[in-house]
Design brief:
Layout (H helix, E strand, L loop, with lengths): L2 H9 L1 H4 L6 H9 L8 E3 L2 H5 L7 H13 L10 H10 L5 H31 L3 H26 L7 H7 L2 E3 L2 H28 L12 H21 L8 H20 L3 H6 L4 H16 L5 E3 L4 H23 L1 H23 L3 E3 L13
Parallel strand pairs: 1-2
Antiparallel strand pairs: 3-4
Helix pairs in contact: 7-8, 8-11, 10-11, 10-12, 10-14, 12-14, 12-15, 15-16
Length: 371
């Protein structure tokens, strides 16, 4: 897709985004299930209960002590400066910027709360002491994250009813190995996203249009540790990283990257306000995530392959065209949506067939959040 076409498509984003004007709108957006929206998951609890992490016991016990130490127990508190910044900065947001920021908050809250629900459900349905303890700690962290975001939504009088969201949003069943691949990537890419934003605003504090971004550094270290937990689980089950499972790993990497790319390019004003450009930001996040994933994944997507980049742009163009078709409605709209789905599948297939970079797994599994 050439630059002129891309710019024309981005101009349609504001028209395609569902505006949030009330608490009812916010809750409806959180509940709505789309290809791009965060999902709620359930899994095979018996299989989770049977996990044996004894082969990584030394690293596991160190990590459990880190969780027990809970270095973020006092972090998610709004101070007087936070409240004052909200009061001062929020009236300055343009209507379009307000909508993009609300979309960011709602999708972030839904993602954090999704983790909280999944981890808590696993905790309640297993007796394995290692898995039970881990899930208790991770559910604790994600609950704090979701609650903290919800407080910022309440500043707009748009708080999400988390109890209702848990009851009404659709759940997707994933086998444990799919949970491991997808959730590991979600936690690590969440770290990469948050730390990239934090570093940018650390260098350019004048572009920090909301105080929540000041919390991102310590916050994303929780995400990093959650990813470490799934890395240890996968390294303790080496069959998950061999044979046909390498294809599943490739699939989930591409799915997560493509979803992020499309979703981020529907928020151009959000990134512009922070002094970022959506494409540059996304590839920096991909680079960090690739670097991190070498601890556990034996294959790496080549994000510098020109065909990869062309396919990312094509996925964006197809998604925007599909949204326009849904808005149009009727038989023609439905046919156009179906055609877009076929084009997206073909484009994803082309991505999947690209050569990958093969990696030897390191002896030392644990990593530190040094980005």
């Amino acid at each position: 897709m050439n630059t002129q076409t891309a710019s024309a498509d981005i101009d349609h984003v504001a028209l395609l985004m569902d505006n949030v004007e009330s608490a009812e709108d916010a809750n409806a957006k959180a509940v709505k299930s789309t290809v791009l929206s965060p999902r709620f998951y359930t899994t095979d609890f018996k299989a989770m209960d049977a996990l044996d992490v004894s082969s990584v016991r030394t690293e596991w016990d160190v990590m459990m002590k880190e969780y027990e130490g809970d270095n973020n127990h006092d972090h998610f508190q709004r101070d007087a400066a936070f409240v004052e910044e909200v009061r001062t900065l929020m009236p300055q947001l343009s209507p379009a910027m307000r909508q993009e920021f609300l979309d960011f908050l709602i999708s972030s809250l839904t993602s954090e709360f999704s983790g909280c629900i999944l981890y808590n459900e696993i905790r309640k349905n297993v007796s394995n002491p290692d898995i039970k303890q881990l899930m208790t700690y991770m559910a604790r962290d994600e609950s704090r994250h979701a609650g903290f975001i919800n407080q910022s939504l309440k500043d707009f009088n748009l708080g999400i009813d988390l109890g209702s969201l848990k009851r009404t949003k659709a759940y997707t069943y994933f086998k444990p190995k799919y949970i491991f691949y997808a959730t590991y990537l979600s936690e690590k890419i969440g770290y990469a996203r948050y730390i990239t934003i934090f570093r940018q605003l650390e260098r350019n504090p004048d572009k920090r249009f909301h105080p929540i971004f000041r919390w991102f550094e310590r916050w994303c270290n929780d995400e990093f540790r959650h990813g470490e937990s799934f890395a240890l689980i996968m390294r303790s089950q080496p069959e998950l990283l061999k044979g046909v499972n390498k294809l599943w790993i490739r699939f989930f990497i591409l799915a997560v990257y493509a979803t992020m790319y499309v979703r981020d390019h529907t928020r151009p004003l959000l990134h512009e306000a922070m002094g970022l450009e959506s494409t540059t930001y996304d590839y920096e996040v991909f680079r960090i995530t690739n670097d991190i994933c070498r601890q556990v994944f034996p294959v790496e997507v080549d994000i510098d392959n020109p065909v990869f980049r062309q396919c990312m742009e094509r996925m964006l163009a197809i998604s925007l065209a599909a949204d326009r078709a849904r808005k149009r409605g009727g038989l023609v709209g439905k046919l156009q949506v179906g055609l877009c789905g076929a084009k997206a599948a073909l484009t994803f297939g082309r991505l999947f067939l690209l050569p990958v970079i093969k990696r030897e797994l390191p002896k030392d599994i644990r990593m530190q959040p040094v980005w």
